[in-house]
Design brief:
456 residues; alpha+beta; FAD/NAD(P)-binding domain; 8-stranded mixed sheet; 22 strands; 24% strand
């Protein structure tokens, strides 16, 4: 078996997270030799594919399940994607400006929305409150046939929609356009990563072997499997959550419309999005249900699934805790029913009618081939489900597991990983250039302490 030349960094996984790191290292770090492995024939075939996600740039302004602290973090991270799209001339090619809103239905939700607006308007000065009269003009379908009062908090003119596959392709091209040695290895699956006697890493694929001074794994659920194969991350397990969508037969909305989150439910509430893959017709979803697969619409590798589930008494306690809550239990059952042909639309439309009351079952079609997997991480020691990104970092060896909003955070995660790699290898990261092109100042972002001072 031939051992190829030594690379500064090897990246495993060609989704938006892996390609963002490739771009960041090639453009802003003093690395010379980079290699990226993708087991499929092109980048972003899984969760970064626009068919597998809601195509949303999550800013935290209309996501009612985000705390203020999480919103601060997500706003900074999302601004990097928006800046890239604008500074690299990708507006209307990769990122699109669409109106968006958080819709409140009924007096209780409207009161909660107003309270959220008052709390978050310092963080997002551009946010507006829209009453029923305004909404009837903007999006008539929201008010047609509705009896209960509604209000929305939203914004116009922001980059709200992103084709993350095209973004990944852009990242790769930008990396290839540098003077660095960048190698893309498509249709090549990494089977093993191990540290060798030289202190470097040997990456074994289904065709040959490579060596690298540092390795970053951005491979979804497989990131944890690689980590555990090297003795790390034994305290984690994976709960594989799948999601599906429904299309309407015509364009019903011009805006992204999110709904208020039930605070007891761990997954995002239903929303309606203009779909960039379907001439901006409306897509409703996602559903959320446990699915015994690691990759949607791809072959099941039972051994990998069993390893990822890592079921023992600690994991079982987490499952039991989730099922004990009647709200969560009903939610899980409902989402399972939504996957059943014929029955699914009848169940799903109850939630969809919260957005468009006049919607009928015959208006919906199951979005065949759409939807993906979101590997949620279980912390076995704390007996809890972790809903944010999880990183296992060992100096020059990094494993990232990035549930939503991992795509939104991809450039932020890449910057942090690139800095860590540069520190480990004794190389320079060009912070000033990165700030000029990608980052923004934290103007307009009030910390919790600042907000307390404002109140005083």
């Amino acid at each position: 078996m031939i051992i190829n030349k030594l690379f500064d960094t090897a990246i495993v996984g060609g989704g938006v997270a892996g390609t963002a790191l490739l771009f960041t290292l090639a453009r802003y770090a003093d690395v010379e030799n980079l290699i990226l492995f993708e087991k499929y024939d092109e980048v972003s075939q899984l969760n970064s594919n626009p068919k597998a996600n809601s195509q949303t740039l999550h800013v935290g302004d209309i996501e009612s399940n985000y705390s203020y602290e999480k919103a601060v973090h997500v706003k900074k991270a999302s601004s990097m994607i928006a800046n890239y799209i604008q500074n690299f001339n990708e507006v209307d090619k990769i990122g699109f400006r669409k109106d968006k809103m958080l819709l409140a239905v009924g007096e209780e939700e409207i009161q909660a929305l107003k309270e959220r607006y008052n709390e978050f308007k310092m963080l997002y000065p551009y946010l507006e409150l829209w009453d029923e009269v305004t909404l009837a003009k903007m999006e008539p379908k929201l008010t047609e046939g509705r009896t209960e009062p509604i209000m929305a908090m939203g914004t116009k003119g922001q980059i709200t929609t992103v084709d993350y596959k095209k973004l990944s392709e852009s990242f790769v091209q930008q990396a290839l356009d540098t003077n660095k040695n960048v190698q893309m290895r498509y249709n090549e699956e990494v089977t093993k990563i191990e540290k060798n006697s030289d202190g470097y890493y040997t990456i074994t694929t289904d065709t040959t072997e490579f060596q690298a001074k540092s390795v970053v794994v951005n491979a979804g659920a497989y990131s944890l499997l690689f980590a555990q194969s090297m003795g790390y991350g034994k305290e984690y397990a994976i709960l594989p959550i799948g999601g599906s969508f429904f299309f309407t037969k015509e364009k019903l909305l011009e805006s992204k419309v999110y709904t208020m989150q039930n605070p007891k439910l761990p997954f995002a509430a239903i929303h309606a999005d203009p779909d960039c893959t379907q001439e901006w017709n409306t897509r409703f979803g996602p559903t959320a249900f446990a699915l015994p697969k690691l990759e949607r619409y791809h072959a099941l590798h039972l051994k990998d699934l069993i390893s990822a589930l890592n079921i023992d008494s600690d994991v079982t306690k987490v499952y039991m805790s989730l099922f004990k809550d009647p709200t969560i239990r009903r939610y899980i059952l409902k989402n399972v029913l939504e996957e059943i042909p014929l029955v699914g639309k009848e169940v799903f439309i109850r939630d969809a009618k919260k957005i468009i009351p006049s919607l009928k079952v015959q208006d919906l079609t199951f979005a065949q081939g759409y939807g993906g997997m979101r590997p949620q991480i279980i912390d076995k020691q704390k007996h809890q489900l972790m809903l944010g990104e999880v990183k296992i970092s060992k100096s020059s060896l990094i494993f990232n597991m990035t549930p939503s909003p991992g795509a939104t955070n991809s450039l932020s995660i890449a910057r942090d990983d690139a800095k860590d790699i540069c520190t480990a290898l004794g190389l320079r990261f060009h912070e000033a250039k990165h700030q000029k092109e990608i980052q923004i100042l934290d103007e307009g972002i009030a910390s919790p302490l600042d907000r307390m001072k404002e109140v005083v």
